[in-house]
Amino acid sequence: MTGFSRFARAAVIAAAVGFAGAASAQTEIGGYSAYIGWEDLHNSKGARLTAPWQVVRQDRANYHRFGISQPGDDWDPFFASMENRAAMERMIMNGTIEPSAAQILMQGGATVFVRIYGQGGVGNSIRVTVSR
After folding, report:
1. Which helix (H) or strand (E) holds 94?
2. Predicted confidence (pLDDT) per residue in 31-42, tens digit
């Protein structure tokens, strides 16, 4: 980079790094909202679930696999896939759910808003918010 000032070189490097970062950035690839009812708090054998990711996953299994839904449950194409539901724990661990939201979720009777982030249709993380 002869002929470039130190500032110009720094700007070129910063632009290149910014471009590379943008190329690997996660984008929202899907989302849905769902009401968490009694059925979502228990697994298919009737045992009470103990973790927020289990409840969110059970809600989607109930909806897509077992045909169990409550008013307020939205259809989503992403978790219609059993493989994507299986990846939900990892996706929530890579994403966010506030402790207060997790507590409300575990009590049931709340609406969850789930946003799925990834690239090219492959989910990598989930952001869960809750409203009562």
Report:
1. helix 88-94
2. 999 999 999 999
Residue type, 5: S
Q: Residue 100: enclosing H or E segment and its boundaries?
A: helix 99-107
- For the entire predicted model, the pTM comes to 0.78
Question: What b/e string do you get for 43-70 counting C-beta neighbours within 10 Å, with b at 16 or more?
Answer: eeeeeebeebbbbbbbbbbbbbeeebbb
Distance CA 62, CA 40 (A): 7
Instruction: Let me know how many helices (H) and strands (E) the chain has, helices first.
Output: 5, 4
| Residue in this structure with the two tokens 């720094």, named with its chain if needed | 10
Considering only CA atoms, which of 123, 113, 129, 112 is closest in space to residue 29?
A: 123
The pLDDT tens digits for 23-74 are 457 899 999 999 999 999 999 899 999 999 999 999 999 999 999 999 999 9
Q: Which residue has the tokens 């299994």?
A: 61
CB 105 within 8 A of CB 17: no
